[in-house]
Amino acid sequence: DVKVTQSSRYLVKRTGEKVFLECVQDMDHENMFWYRQDPGLGLRLIYFSYDVKMKEKGDIPEGYSVSREKKERFSLILESASTNQTSMYLCASTDGRGSGANVLTFGAGSRLTVL
Amino acid sequence: SQKIEQNSEALNIQEGKTATLTCNYTNYSPAYLQWYRQDPGRGPVFLLLIRENEKEKRKERLKVTFDTTLKQSLFHITASQPADSATYLCALKTGANNLFFGTGTRLTVIP
Fold first, then answer.
1. Which of B29, B33, B27 is nearest to B2 (CA)?
2. Which of A34, A41, A103, B13 has its CA 20 to 30 A from that of A90?
3. Å from B104 to nearest chain A CA?
4. Those residues with Cβ within 8 angstroms of residue A91's Cβ, 6 or more apart along the chain or in another chain
5. Which of A104, A91, A97 is nearest to A7 (CA)?
6. What's the rounded Cα separation, in Å, for the pair B30 and B71?
7. Are A78 and A86 in contact (CB under 8 A)?
């Protein structure tokens, strides 16, 4: 069964802390994405990556950075967490080779609370 | 500005009836549209995809229609069951390599 695994389901951090959210996929997918999901706002794209060491800004990249050192792993980094970054974070991946359909496989999500 | 609207935040329906969820969009020319299901505390799960040149797609009790003139997709669940209770998200892909999601409709099927 194909999987996207997010290492932490629930995190509580303090304002100003550095936060790492890890995501690993076992499907050899080219593309990986980080979204955040907030009530009434839906899923919003933070960053995505088409290849190792490549990254592209999404719609709301401010306050975030990402790292993709290996094909299967895509990390989201909050350099200095703030309360407005309290949210559900969802990692997803898709095989971008040829299909053009971009069907996303999501992880279970990481719920981050910043106090 | 670009916008995707799902008809209502919440929809309650009696078991056995057909649930119809709406996704309307403006200022897009989507290459295709997808529907996902999301259960509480979980990530979305892909259900169906329909391309711009397709009018209708079916999968078991699910049916999706796509009207690019009306800029609307309808998602139907026939013979609905309590296990169908979830939030359903529509997502549009345009020419860019990104999917734009609606805010979702929370469906409750009442036994």
1. B27
2. B13
3. 7
4. A4, A6, A21, A23, A25, A32, A33, A34, A35, A74, A76, A106, A107, A110
5. A91
6. 9
7. no
The three state secondary structure string of A38-105 is ECCCEEEEEEEECCCCCCEECCCCCCCEEEEEECCEEEEEECCCCHHHCEEEEEEEECCCCCCCCCCE
Residue B56's pLDDT is what?
95
* CA neighbor of B33 nearest in space, from B97, B103, B94, B84: B94
CB-closest option in A41, A103, A106 to B43: A106
Q: What is the pLDDT of residues A36-49, one digit of tens each?
A: 999 888 899 999 99
Nearest neighbour of B101 by CB, restricted to A43, A48, A102: A43
Residue with tokens 């009836």: B17
Q: Which of B4, B43, B103 sits opposite A90 (nearest CB)?
A: B43
Q: Do A42 and B42 touch (CB under 8 A)?
A: no
- Residue the block writes with tokens 């040149």: B53
**Residue A14: predicted pLDDT:** 97
* Bridge-based pairing state of the strands B3-6 and A65-70: unpaired
